[in-house]
Amino acid sequence: MVLDVRALTMDFGGLRAVDHVDLQISQGEIVALIGPNGAGKTTFFNCVTGMYTPTTGTVTIARPGSEPHNITRMRPHLITAQGLARTFQNIRLFPEMTVLENVMIGRDCRLSAGIVGAILRNRKTLEEEEQVVLDSFRMLEIVGIGKWANETAKNLPYGAQRRLEIARALATEPFLLLLDEPAAGMNPQETRDLVALIRRLRFDHHLSIFLIEHDMSLVMTLSERIYVMDYGKLIAVGEPAEVRRDPAVIKAYLGEDVSA
Amino acid sequence: MCPQATSVQTRPSRYLAYARRSLLVSIWFAILTFPIIVIRANTITGIITWRWHNIGWIIAGTFFGSWIWGYFLERKRLGTRAPAGPLRRRITALRGALDRLKQRPQVARMSVVILVLAVVAFPFLGGMYQTNIMTTALLYVVLGLGLNIIIGLGGMLHIGYIAFYALGAYSYALLNFHFGLNFWLALPIGALVGGLFSLAIGIPVLRLRGDYLAIVTLAFAEITRLVLENWSGLTFGTAGIRNIPRPAIPGIRLTLPQTTTFVYFIMIGLVLLTIFVVNRLENSRIGRQFVAMKEDFIACQAMGVNIARTKLAALGLGGMWAGLVGVVFAARTTFINPASFTVWESIIVLCTVVLGGMGSIPGVITGALVLILVPEYLRAFAQFRMLLFGAILVTMMVFRPGGLIQKRRRAYRITAEEQKVVAESGDLSIQG
Ligand SMILES: Nc1ncnc2c1ncn2[C@@H]1O[C@H](COP(=O)(O)OP(=O)(O)OP(=O)(O)O)[C@@H](O)[C@H]1O
Ligand SMILES: [Mg+2]
């Protein structure tokens, strides 16, 4: 089990955005989290990655081959260093930095150079910098945007920006990748390429993948298990075929009237 | 829609509209300035003179000023779509020629030699007065480059920067007064004091951003000044500290003009040191962290950067320089009191950074030189100095918001060979 979430709850004042959600992901799984708008999916992500401090509940992670680790209430940069990496629903790149520099920031938590090294430019620092450029470039090649390495991030086409976010997340050396609506705004061709990329990350790089997505055809073809949320609560879990037939899911998506 | 047709149709009418607006602006301005331009009251004799002719000048001047302003705004709006006039074409050609010249290694070498000669010869050709002015400008260059670490790189709007300058100056003055500490030892101590205080006020404001940070740092600067003013037992209050020794070389007696020249060269040295350090910081892991934090601190945090540490690093590394040159300031004026460290000074340093170009080293240097030297040489217009200052800043913000010399992101060279290695290794592994 790479991720084990127990009874996670997140309150915003009077609003319970996430309500006692249990969720498990095994090594190498592709798991999707779906639900209508405002169901609390992004909030759930934010709680897992430490952007929000959950009201109650625990989040435990385990890098394959090591002991489980409680990361509830840990600060986000430390969680990333533990091996969880994410992308954002509304792309959050560093718009004025180059594409390569964006990825280099992802690499940052694996570096050790300090201020003194920066000023003295000793051998170790220079070697590390050289290595980080190469490593970051490799991430760009993995997602297929290497040719844009020195372009300013904000000038990339939309689909490439989404890919860059993935490359930046990969650079942190995660074992679990969390993607918040990676296909949002993509055209069918871009979406197909994205599916192929996610499969490659899963099969070639042995990542576990946890994604939020509204594009149902993508979710149904890609994911091995699906969690469905509505109004903060988990209403269904299962394989794509099961979930598709689940009356509670149909009701959540189509509304009360139709199911009645 | 055909752009040419519209521009032909709308242009004359648009310029007419500008003329009408310019007229309104000039009348408004005439009314606004009426009391100071037209009426002159002699308070002794009690006679009031009405200088009606002045109003004519004001209206005419404002009208044309406003019209020209409108013209340039229009050009800016049209941007590259505007057909290149003969003047514009000549400028572009000239710029191309300059760029080509700059690429020639001999030219680069020559300009460095000329610059070095000019810098070295300046105090001997310019005399004491000019050297003093230039030294002041150089102080602001270091201040600007230091604040640039906090604002331009780290993206934290800090308005209390001058407080660290004050602390550096007082460190030297007091340590010298009580313990006879000499200038050279005071330099690193001043830097340390500036950096540490910057860190210390950074810790409580780590969560603040933007305007909130600006207000808190502003308050900090004022508190520092008030403490210096009122803690008479330690700081001698508003009376200040006198007879602070000038920088000296042990064993050599320097005359006043010689000391002036000496201080100038000390400042040149410190400016070079600052450029060296800031440049290296900028092009390193920490510099990258600064910029990423400024661009999107949430994403930055999510990517594993410790935001708190990065902010403190920017504050500490920035505050240091103010403390350092604070010592030089105390040593060259030989007298300091709290009145030298008002918030206004902070604002000037802030302006040098913004005017020059946030995050750009040549930009900040140019900004500091322009903002300090131009007012000095415009002493003739002393009454209008502030007006001019404001006008320049507004113009800059409208027409060149990125500053005089804008920051360019560095491109990393990935050689074809390295690309091949990455591509052919087939193992596009994620682990480093
Ligand atoms: N920081 C916050 N403060 C207050 N309320 C919030 C906050 N973040 C989210 N919410 C609320 O929590 C609920 C869940 O929002 P969330 O963004 O998690 O939904 P979502 O499932 O990601 O929806 P979408 O599919 O539209 O992205 C919403 O009602 C939202 O208004
Ligand atoms: Mg969402």
Characterise this structure.
The complex is a heterodimer of chains A (260) and B (432). The mean pLDDT of chain A is 91. In chain A, α3 packs across α5 (123-143), α3 packs parallel to α6 (158-170) and α5 packs across α6 (158-170). With 260 residues, chain A is of the alpha/beta class. Chain A is 40% helix and 23% strand. In chain A, the strands form 2 sheets. In chain A, strands 6-7-8-3-9-10 form a 6-stranded mixed beta sheet, sandwiched between helices. A 4-stranded antiparallel beta sheet of chain A has the order 2-1-4-5, covered by helices on one side. Chain A folds into 2 domains: 1-83 and 174-260, 3-Layer(aba) Sandwich (Rossmann fold), CATH 3.40.50; 94-173, no CATH class. Chain A is built from 11 helices and 10 strands. Chain B is mainly α and 432 residues long. Chain B folds into 2 domains: 3-83, no CATH class; 128-399, ABC transporter involved in vitamin B12 uptake, BtuC, CATH 1.10.3470. Chain B has helices at 3-37, 52-78, 86-103, 105-153, 162-179, 183-202, 210-230, 232-235, 256-282, 285-295, 297-302, 307-333, 343-356, 361-377, 385-399, 416-424, and strands at 39-42, 47-50. A two-stranded antiparallel ribbon of chain B has the order 1-2. The longest helix of chain B is centred in the first third of the chain and has 49 residues, at 105-153. Chain B is globular, with a radius of gyration of 26 Å. At the A-B interface, α2, α3, α4, α5 and α6 of A face α9, α10, α11, α12 and α16 of B. The complex binds adenosine-5'-triphosphate and magnesium ion (MG).
